[in-house]
Amino acid sequence: MGTVILLALTGLGLAALYFLVASGLSLVFGLADVLNFAHGLFLGVGAYGTWWAAGNLPGAGPDGFGFVVAVAFGVAAGTLVAVLVELVLIRPLYSRTIEQVLVTVGLSLAGVALLQATWGADARPFPRPDWTRQVTGILGAQVPNGGLLLIIAAVLVLGAILAFLRWTRYGLVIRAGVENREMVTALGIDVRKAFTLVFAIGGAAAALAGALGGVYFGTVSPGQGGSLLIFAFIVVVIGGMGSVVGSAYAAVVVGLVQQFVNYYGTSGLGDICVVGLLAVVLLLRPQGIAGKVATA
Fold this sequence. Notes:
The protein is mainly alpha-helical. The protein is 74% helix and 4% strand. The strands form two sheets. A two-stranded antiparallel sheet has the order 1-4. The protein has a two-stranded antiparallel ribbon with strand order 2-3. A hairpin with a 2-residue loop joins strand 2 (135-138) and strand 3.
C-alpha cells in the first residue's frame, strides 16, 4: 500500500510540473492561436535565474525567505523574456502560422545555445532549501517534500488562473477571445494587450516550473526546458487546446501513467505509453478531454 501511495504522490508531483509548463502553452494557443515552441526557453530562464540569484543576489539564498526571493527573481526574468518575445517576434507574425513555428523553433535552439555558452552544457547542482531534500510520511509512504511543493504550487497556480479568468476584466476578455476572437475585436477591444498579458502569465508559470523543477530534480541544465516541453505539449493536446482545466486533468493522467508503468514495467515504458495515449486521444477524441468540437 505504501508503494502505491508513494507512486501516486510522486506521479502527482510530476503532473504538477507538467501542468505548470502546459498551462501557459494552453492559454497562449487558446487566445493567440500560437504554438510556442520557445516556451521551454522561459522555463530555462526561470531555472537559471533562480540558480544565479540564490548565489549572487543580495537578500536571496537557498534557504528560508532568501529562496523565495531567488524564485521571485527567476519568475520575473522568465516573465520579462516572455513579454519581449511576444512584442518583438510573435506580434508581427500573428495569423502567419508557418513563420511562427520557424521563429519559435529557432528561438528555442538559440536559447539553449545561449544558456550553454553562458553557464556550460553540464548540469549544475541546484540550490534548494534543506527541507525539500527530506521526506514526509503519508499513509505509510515516505514522500519527497520537493514533489509535495510542486503539487501545492500547481494547485495555487490553477486556482489563481481560474480566478483571474473568471473575475477580472482582462480575464473576461481572454475567455471571450478564446471563444470568438473576431467578435471581441469587432467590439473595439484591443486584444493585443490581452495577447501580451497571456504570454506574461504563461512565461511566469513556465519560469516557476523551472525554479521548482530545479528543486525536484536537484540540478539545472540548458536542455531541461526542451525535454519537459515535449510532455507539456502532450498534456495540452490530450487536455484540449486552449483549456487550462483540461491541461490539469491531462497532466494528472500523464504523470500517473508514467510513474506506475515505469515502476511496474521497464524504464522508459511509461513514456511510450504516454505517446500511445496521445495517439488514442487523437483518434477517438481529437478535441481532447475538455476541448470543444470544431464547427463549420
